[in-house]
Specification:
five-stranded mixed sheet, alpha/beta, elongated, 20 helices
Length: 518
């Protein structure tokens, strides 16, 4: 991982200059562009680019918000980066302030910073294995072969690496690199031309002509190994490419495929190691401190989200893997995920911004193209108590499966009372409380005579002194309700004026109802 100093060194002094740098600097997480008139969502360690900041007040406001949300640095162009009010705000908040040299293209800066960050992201996990940094170098080499800018993408059109040269580009390439994925509208255009259909079947380079909206021509080659489509390479070209150059481009695919497989092996090994450590955190025990330290989990409150994809048994594993990939690569900063049985568990900080629970919640509830999951979320706790949040999530997930929650999302703060009833039902059933008092007689009368005395008594206890509301719950006339209550007092000897008796009867009835639904 790189700190701010290292990022500035790699991007180069011709583009960036340090204005204020705190004595100790944290590792940089990602690049965030401050959008005009949009709430700022920043994770700890982010570099924030003040692209649309045009005056002193806006610069001061952005600097203050970045400092409050734990960003690593804010990047501004002159003269704002030298304004005394901005400098004072940065110093007061302990935020690094970096000058972006005049004339620097913001898009180019995003490319260079993300290339610097991505070039070390995987290599740091195992210095003996090739990582994403090697893919970036390979993209540069392929770009030299085809004499055009290149992106390397996985089978889901996620950008894994891209070449440094940007001499030929268009808005589609800019959006693809900045978003780390081909935008949906761009994908739709290539699908309409049959580009992806050709990729799925062939192995040679495909030429895609330019489009009326200004999208430049592409030379595309599938990346395969052992019959499996691992991804594709896209080169932005000015026009038709010679057969020799097209063949040379296609000939690089096996080398890229080998590198992708090596990178996948590193990523899978790291994911498995991370999953094992997350499992230790969720189980508690003696090793939670070691696991938290190795995962770099902060001491801020975290939640455990239990996620179950509702699908057939044959498709369940594939959907879980797809959901795992989607969560860890598509939702802000990497949430920590593990799999236990048929359930995915995501460990997320209870804070707004990238990687936090609100972002994951919104993404899961609004996910398109994913099998709609059941999501149960425990309370926010410290790292030492994550096993408790996991237990609550498991209980809520069971209620979702049983249909006792009329939704696909269950959050502890909203439904804690259902956990009380659920646990009470289990304890009361084990203790045999249902066999005490007058309820067994009323239960037998309902069974043999077809009456509804247990339901009537439950409605009366829920709405004491309000027969109209109680009868409405049962969908009977108030006089019918009153007659039933009179018959109940004739059948059993029970003092309904005693508050302790009423409480005991309500506990018994609730326990019986919840026990039937468990």
């Amino acid at each position: 991982m790189l700190d701010i100093r290292a990022v500035i060194e790699r991007v180069g002094p011709t583009l960036l200059r340090t204005v204020i740098l705190p004595g100790s600097t944290d590792c940089v997480g990602d690049v965030v562009i401050a959008e005009p008139d949009q709430p700022l969502t920043v994770a700890e360690g982010d570099l924030v680019l003040g692209v649309a900041v045009g005056d002193r007040d806006a610069a001061v406001r952005l600097t203050r918000e970045c400092g409050a949300q734990g960003a690593a640095a804010v990047l501004l162009k002159p003269p704002l980066c030298g304004d005394p009010a901005v400098l004072t705000t940065a110093e007061d908040t302990g935020l690094a302030l970096v000058e972006v040299r005049p004339g620097t293209a913001w898009a180019q800066l995003v490319w260079l910073i993300r290339a610097a960050l991505a070039g070390t992201a995987v290599e740091d996990t195992d210095t003996r294995s090739p990582g994403l940094g090697d893919l970036f170098k390979l993209a540069d080499a392929v770009a030299d072969v085809v004499d055009a800018p290149v992106t390397i993408e996985d089978a889901h059109s996620q950008v894994l690496a891209y070449s440094a040269r940007q001499d030929l580009t268009d808005p589609a390439r800019v959006s693809t690199i900045m978003g780390r994925k081909q935008p949906d509208d761009v994908l739709a255009k290539f699908r309409a031309r049959g580009t992806f259909r050709q990729l799925s079947k062939g192995s040679s380079a495909i030429f895609v002509p330019g489009q009326q909206d200004g999208t430049l021509p592409r030379l595309v080659v599938p990346i395969r190994m052992g019959g499996e489509l691992l991804g594709s390479m896209w080169a932005v070209v000015p026009g038709e490419v010679s057969v020799e150059r097209s063949t040379a481009f296609a000939d690089t695919a096996p080398l890229v495929a080998l590198q992708l497989l090596r990178w996948r092996a590193v990523a899978d090994a790291e994911r498995q190691r991370s999953a094992d450590q997350v499992r230790q955190l969720l189980e508690g025990g003696d090793r939670w401190r070691v696991a938290a330290s190795e995962l770099g989990v902060s001491h801020d409150p975290h939640r455990v989200a239990a996620i179950e994809v509702s699908t057939s048994a044959e498709e369940a594993e594939g959907h879980r893997l797809a959901m795992w990939e989607w969560i860890t690569r598509g939702v802000g900063r990497r949430p920590l995920v593990t799999e236990v049985g048929n359930v995915l568990y995501a460990l997320v900080p209870d804070r707004p911004g990238a990687g936090g629970w609100p972002v994951l919640r919104d993404a899961l509830t609004a996910a398109e193209g994913q099998a709609k999951p059941l999501v149960a979320v425990g309370t926010a706790v410290g790292v030492a108590d994550l096993h408790r949040s996991r237990s609550e999530a498991d209980e809520l997930l069971a209620l979702l499966r049983a249909g006792q929650v009329p939704d696909r999302l269950a959050v502890y703060e909203d439904l804690w009372h259902l956990l009380v009833l659920n646990r009470m039902a289990g304890t009361a059933t084990d203790a045999g409380v249902g066999s005490l008092g007058p309820l067994p007689l009323l239960r037998e009368h309902d069974r043999s005579q077809g009456t509804e005395y247990l339901n009537t008594l439950h409605a009366w206890l829920r709405h004491p002194g309000d027969p109209r509301t109680a009868s409405h719950d049962l969908r009977v006339h108030p006089n019918t309700f009153r007659y039933r209550m009179k018959r109940i007092t004739q059948l059993v000897d029970v003092d309904l004026d005693d508050p302790d008796v009423r409480s005991a009867l309500l506990v018994q009835l609730l326990a019986a109802r919840w026990a039937r639904q468990r």
